[in-house]
Amino acid sequence: MAATSMAAALAASLPAPSATISVAAPSYEAIPASMAKVIDIEADIPLTCVQLDGLVVTKIIKHAREAPSSTAHGLLLGLDLDGILEVSNSFPLPHRVGDDDDKSSKSSARHQASMLRSLKEVQADDSVIGFYQATTLGAFFNQTLVDTQAIHQDKLRHGGIVIVHDLSQTARGNASFHAYRLTGAFLDAYKKSNFSTASLMSHRLTFSSILEEVPLKIRTNPLLSAFLGKLTETSDEGLPSATIGANSGLAPSFSVLDLGTGGVARNLEQIIEAVDNYRTEEGNLSYLTRQIARERSKAENYIAKRKEENVGRVAQGLAPLPEEDVTRLFKIPAEPSRLESMLILGQIDAYGKSLAGTASTGLVKMYAANASTDV
Amino acid sequence: MPLGPKSSAINIHGTTVTDSSHNVPRTPTNITIHPVALFSILDHYLRRTDAQDRVIGTLLGTRHDNEVEVRSSFAVLHSETDEQVAVDMDYHRTMYELHHKVNPKEVIVGWYSTGSNLNTYSALIQNFYSQETSPHQAIHVSVNTGTEEGQEAGVKAYISSPVGVNPKPENCVFVPVPVELRFHDAERSGLDLLANTASLPAATTAQPVADLEIIERALVSVSDMLDRVLTYVRAVLAGEKKGDPAIGRYLMDTLGASTEDLEKGGFNTSLQDTLMISYLANLVRAQAEVSSRLALTAAS
């Protein structure tokens, strides 16, 4: 339910694309030839890369760490230029509490609208280009993400992107950001809201083909670079050379070399949880499938019986009974959606991947430590 | 971690306040800044209009005993002319409410400006923010972006106190307070990433970075440090340099770390665990993949 509320909130706050185009269209000025390749009003140039500003990196990390629940999300602002989507700012969205759906979605929409207006006043970028979501241990597949992204796909230029940040990996010393968007096949199935087996087959959908990754780059603007350079610079006034580093704003850290494998237990727990969820979901699905099969066989039996009867009646010279009221007599339920189980599988896979990653770096570190003790 | 050039100011800390004066707001004696606040200020400075000499904004954060922790900041509209200074109060209020909704713990603690000159207008703005933060004292953080020639980038923080026989809002003394950069350990790698990016000529890095690459980087840096220490120790042994007992103590503590646990079979146990986990992880992934493929063929 929360998913739809957020989706509705986003839908309400985003400007309708048709409106912006109609405003922009009359005020054309001749685009200089040198810029003609770069400026695309209709968003014709496909995105090749997402460029994340340093400010957004810190903002997302801070929000992800402080958020009360494991999933923090917010909107990304920026613009696209010659196939590079520049993310220059972001702001967090309020954490949803309770299940007061309608009210919270409205207030969330209001929040976004006034935030965008306020940012515009101080010359910050104010066009929404997607959203970000923080996860732990890599499992970011969920209904909310898919719903929100599907709405963005219609409303935003280039369909919007979602940036996923893995908090647990950042804590381990490797800050990671990934940019994704929905694949065409998934979007097609989503629009028809048809996730039956047949639809999945025709679209060749598995969890790995829901999202496609867009290359992502981190950029720091020159001012930030200069400032960071100043912070990391060592100022060893009056101190012996051996203590270099102690006096700089950013002393080096070696948390990546930590041999501890603290997060593994939690990771395993989550895998078990996800597998349990998957089993429940599969149970539901098979129950529904059985029910469908039962209803269908009932209906078929009925038809066969009717046909037999009719053959008998014709032989006796009587008028045959009508055959078309089968659909009214037997309600065959619609085929269940497999989206949920697909998403859970995606989660399991992501947990597995993060576990494998931890294990493999753990191995490297252990052998390194062992080798250094032998010396 | 200090920010910017050393100041010659002496910061006098009073004796710790006893419980009797619990209701009296304490004077901040230490200010910490989260990188987000700092980077937002820099971004705001980049986006200023040509007419603006400096930009100002509100600092949000939390207060502990004598410490103010600045955790985020937002830009505020203001205009300065020779005759007057105006701050958009409505804007400030709206933005504060928006921020407050997302992060209720953060309250207004003061304001920032870029550039390091403190003038009458600074005092007036300080006066305005003091009303916002009362009964606590407002802090002022001035960020020198280092874009003007001959000025060094750095951050300074001040608190104000009234001056004169009849205190007026446009008169005040800005008392410097030590300021430090502070962030959570978990956010460390994000900053490393940015620092790394900043040091590259193109100022961009591709994501994601492999874990091994980061480990390698850390190892290389450790190896560099060992080399430096080795040179120093050799120089001391050869009598070229006078040894510093403090450094010797540090080296002893650092290098004397025991690896006994690893040697006593700990390695093998741990290795088996890790291998098991690796196996399990791959098994789970394979199962998930098979399961999703099976779903595609079920109907045929």
UniProtKB/TrEMBL annotation, chain A:
Compartment(s): Cytoplasm
A molecular-function term among this protein's GO annotations: metallopeptidase activity
Tagged with keyword Nucleotidyltransferase: no
Cited InterPro entries: eIF3h, eIF3h_C, JAMM/MPN+_dom, JAMM_MPN+_peptidase_M67A, MPN
Main location: cytoplasm
Record's subunit section: Component of the eukaryotic translation initiation factor 3 (eIF-3) complex.
Protein name (database record): Eukaryotic translation initiation factor 3 subunit H
Organism expressing this protein natively: Hypholoma sublateritium (strain FD-334 SS-4)
From TrEMBL, chain B:
Compartment list: Cytoplasm
Keywords: Cytoplasm, Initiation factor, Protein biosynthesis
Short name of one Pfam family: MitMem_reg
InterPro entries associated with the record: eIF3f (IPR027531), EIF3F/CSN6-like_C (IPR024969), JAMM/MPN+_dom (IPR000555), MPN (IPR037518)
Domain MPN: 31-164
Biological process (GO), any one: formation of cytoplasmic translation initiation complex
Polar residues: compositionally biased ranges: 8-23
PROSITE patterns the record matches: MPN
Gene3D superfamilies named in the record: Cytidine Deaminase, domain 2
Region (Disordered): 1-23
GO cellular component terms attached to this protein's record: eukaryotic 43S preinitiation complex; eukaryotic 48S preinitiation complex; eukaryotic translation initiation factor 3 complex, eIF3m
The keyword Iron-sulfur is annotated on this UniProt entry: no
GO molecular function, one term: metallopeptidase activity
Subunit structure: Component of the eukaryotic translation initiation factor 3 (eIF-3) complex.
Function: Component of the eukaryotic translation initiation factor 3 (eIF-3) complex, which is involved in protein synthesis of a specialized repertoire of mRNAs and, together with other initiation factors, stimulates binding of mRNA and methionyl-tRNAi to the 40S ribosome. The eIF-3 complex specifically targets and initiates translation of a subset of mRNAs involved in cell proliferation.
Family: Belongs to the eIF-3 subunit F family.
HAMAP family attached to this UniProt entry: eIF3f
Designated name of the protein: Eukaryotic translation initiation factor 3 subunit F
